[in-house]
Design goal:
The complex is a heterodimer of chains A (252) and B (496). Chain A has 252 residues and is mainly alpha-helical. Chain A contains 8 helices and 2 strands; from the N terminus they run αααββααααα. In chain B, the strands form 4 sheets. In chain B, strands 6-7-8-3-9-10 form a 6-stranded mixed β-sheet, with helices on both faces. The longest helix of chain B has 16 residues. Classes of the chains: A mainly alpha (252), B alpha/beta (496).
Chain lengths: 252, 496
């Protein structure tokens, strides 16, 4: 079951982005760990689709974590506390702790952004951006970027079916699947470009280039409180980040 | 209200189109622009919609007048540009091919219909009532919350038309709006256009053939090779001998050479379906859950042509896709020449069953027409040069021999459809499964198709075609099979 929405998607998206900024600014593993345990894990668990998000995080962050562990764990140049000497590679305490820090940060990034992206109510987000008077082209870019993924997937499936109907045999092995993927790429890209050109004309015929303020079919679910909250979040993050980055330099 | 005086129009220095074409449309008028493939009707529709093609290298000489304001074009780079936003507030346009017209940023049919008016700043509460009205007129109300990308072809077409209507234009231009619609859906669209027209909107409809029915007083501008050949009332157009320009009347049977009469079933059973049941996994076809099959029995013999009839969503396409393994039966069995389809890959069945998709653009994927058509025979195991030779011969048979090196996307709709058909002919399967083969075809192409289909049956092949075109089915098929809700109904007319 999908969780009940409390906040407007724009507020949720901003919170996710600001959290990523904070984790980048506060370059400490304790902070990353705290965010991971106190924010990311509860968010994933209560998202209503923890399995899919967990899988997506594992697919995206897993290889990154593994390569970070191998690279920094074995070949950290500044490492001095050697835990194991493997000839050209040395396992050092500094390398491991750096790998842990990087790994934590990557987990937080992927966890926060994927949870936000996979639970976001895109139509509501676009409606809110429109009601708030955002630039219509920017709203279109956000909307079509999200809409394009299922569109491309559908189109690729149609082309594969057409090719099969004309004699393409898709084997079961990974190599055969890769070859089928390559066969579908050229017509897919050409088809999408032709579509894009046609769509450009049709957007014109539907008044997209008009300069009056655009309106939205969906009602405005945003509240004044959340608007204030977003501004406060933004301001607090900006002030905190500036202070965090500048103070050590000033105090020397 | 809107008028065009075209001296000439040319794409990339190609042959001039719309030479000496004049069209003026008054409020509440219904004008049919009729013409065969490449007659220039789509170009005229785009001009009315304010698309002069200047951004794509086209050269237009003439004048367009909207609400008393005339814009002149001399084919020079300094020609004025039409502001699409201002133009769209007065002139609505529905192009061919519903897919390319979706905004791609709407998650529901309601938002898609509202896209145009929302661009023009219509307030939210008015938008909602506007969308509700238009959706009700086109029986789209139950679909308002559905994803537009998951609609069936007919539903998608009605959504795109609804979106143009919602802009409440003074002039509405529609390029082949009835293509692919069953009779009920086409009637819904015609009724909704009548309501608009009653409120003073001028309607311009481009069609490859003269319509069977149109509002009283409907006018026809007929084009052939880019030139006007008739301008007058529809009632007069019917007797004006326009068939010599490739403009037939919708609903007329195709002209068949008497010598090419199909001989009828005369050989072994090529296709056997026994008790076939099938349903799509939930969510695959969105709302189109009726497109499943139950207890379908069908047999097709060499020399036989069978027409598959039924409304949009009755399961015709799904049934056809069982013949070449694109769909696999959940229950029952499908056999080709006595060999059951079990786990063979779809590609391996292409040599036995040729499939024409309803949406041609799904089917074309190569760089040139010749490569496109030779793909099938090559995949079926012919040597490369043999595949190319077969492709050339097939293209000659459909009359496209001169276009071997063209890109399939450069061709018009009818030619693309014929390329798809040529690709089946070149592969040489015994069974043809054709999904809405006559949709959007002009009279010459429809006649050619009838000849090819009957010739294939005479040569020992078998054809099953899903179609809304009753006249075509009656002319070429030996029998019709009616599908409703995925079940075969008793035969409605054993013919020939």
């Amino acid at each position: 079951m999908r969780r009940r929405r409390i906040y407007n998607p724009l507020t949720e998206l901003l919170a996710a982005v600001l959290l990523v900024v904070l984790v980048l600014v506060v370059n400490r593993w304790e902070f990353s760990l705290a965010v991971l345990v106190l924010v990311v894990v509860p968010a994933v668990v209560s998202s209503g689709r923890p399995r899919q998000i967990g899988l997506a995080v594992a697919v995206v962050a897993g290889p990154l974590l593994l390569s970070s562990l191998l690279l920094h764990g074995l070949f950290y140049p500044e490492g001095s506390t050697v835990l194991a000497d493997l000839g050209p590679a040395r396992v050092t305490a500094e390398g491991l702790s750096f790998a842990a820090l990087m790994g934590l940060r990557m987990s937080v990034f992927t966890g926060v952004l994927l949870t936000a992206a996979m639970t976001l109510e895109v139509p509501e987000l676009l409606a809110t951006m429109t009601h708030r008077g955002w630039n219509r082209k920017l709203v279109f870019v956000v909307g079509s970027a999200v809409g394009l993924i299922p569109h491309v997937a559908l189109r690729a499936r149609q082309i594969t079916r057409a090719q099969q109907a004309r004699g393409l045999v898709v084997g079961r092995g990974p190599l055969a699947r890769l070859r089928a993927l390559l066969t579908v790429t050229t017509p897919l890209v050409i088809g999408l470009l032709v579509d894009a050109s046609e769509r450009n004309h049709m957007l014109g015929a539907r008044g997209f280039s008009s300069t009056v303020a655009r309106t939205s079919y969906l009602p405005d679910t945003d509240t004044p409180g959340q608007r204030i909250a977003r501004r406060v979040m933004l301001a607090v993050t900006a002030v905190f980040s500036t202070a965090w980055l500048i103070l050590p330099v000033v105090t020397g | 209200m809107i008028s065009i005086e075209s001296t000439s129009f040319a794409y990339d220095d190609g042959a001039p189109l719309l030479v000496g074409v004049t069209l003026a449309v008054q409020p509440g008028e219904y004008v049919v622009v009729a013409g065969a493939s490449a007659s220039g009707k789509t170009t005229l529709a785009r001009l009315l919609a304010g698309q002069t093609g200047a951004d794509a290298g086209a050269v237009f000489r003439g004048a367009v007048t909207l609400d008393g304001e005339t814009i002149r074009f001399d084919g020079a780079p300094t020609d004025p540009r039409i502001d699409p936003a201002a133009w769209s507030a007065r002139v609505g346009f529905v192009a061919q091919g519903a897919w390319g017209q979706l905004s791609m940023m709407s998650a529901s049919v309601g938002e898609e219909i509202a896209f145009g008016p929302s661009n023009l700043g219509v307030p939210t509460d008015q938008l909602r009532s506007l969308v509700a009205d238009v959706a009700a007129a086109l029986t789209l109300t139950p679909l308002l919350n559905h994803d537009p990308r998951r609609l069936s072809g007919g539903q998608l077409q009605r959504t795109v038309i609804a979106a143009a209507m919602a802009q409440r234009p003074a002039v509405l231009v529609l390029d082949e709006p009835f293509q692919g619609l069953d009779d009920d859906s086409a009637q819904d669209v015609a009724d909704a256009l009548e309501v608009l027209r009653g409120a003073g909107t001028a309607i311009v409809v481009c069609e490859p053939m003269l319509p069977r029915a149109a509002p009283e007083g409907a006018r026809v501008l007929a084009l052939a090779d880019g030139r006007p050949v008739f301008d007058g009332l529809l009632t007069d157009a019917r007797g004006a001998g326009l068939r010599r320009y490739g403009i037939g009347t919708a609903g007329d049977p195709p002209r068949l050479d008497p010598a090419s009469d199909p001989t009828g079933p005369h050989g072994r059973e090529l296709v056997t379906l026994r008790g076939v049941g099938f349903s799509y996994p939930s969510g695959r076809r969105g709302d189109d859950r009726s497109a499943c099959l139950a207890g379908v029995d069908l047999s097709l013999h060499a020399g036989e042509i069978v027409a598959l009839r039924g409304s949009n969503g009755s399961g015709k396409s799904t049934l056809l896709q069982h013949l070449n393994g694109l769909c696999r039966a959940d229950a029952g069995s499908v056999s080709l020449a006595g060999v059951p389809i079990l786990r063979q890959p779809t590609g391996a069945l292409a040599a036995c069953v040729g499939f024409l998709f309803q949406d041609t653009d799904q089917q074309l994927f190569e760089r040139t027409v010749l490569r496109e058509v030779s793909y099938g025979p090559f995949a079926a195991g012919h040597r490369r040069d043999d595949a190319v030779r077969r492709a050339s011969e097939a293209l000659e048979r459909v009359g496209l021999g001169a276009l071997e090196e063209a890109h399939p996307y450069e061709l018009g709709f009818v030619q693309r459809r014929l390329v798809a058909l040529a690709s089946i002919i070149a592969t040489g399967p015994a069974v043809w499964a054709l999904d809405e083969p006559t949709a959007g075809l002009d009279d010459p192409a429809r006649t050619l198709l009838a000849a090819l289909v009957t010739a294939h049956a005479r040569g020992g092949g078998a054809v099953v075609l899903a179609t809304h075109d009753e006249a075509f089915a009656r002319a070429v098929a030996h029998r019709s099979v009616r599908l409703e809700g995925g079940r075969i109904m008793p035969e409605d007319h054993p013919s020939v």
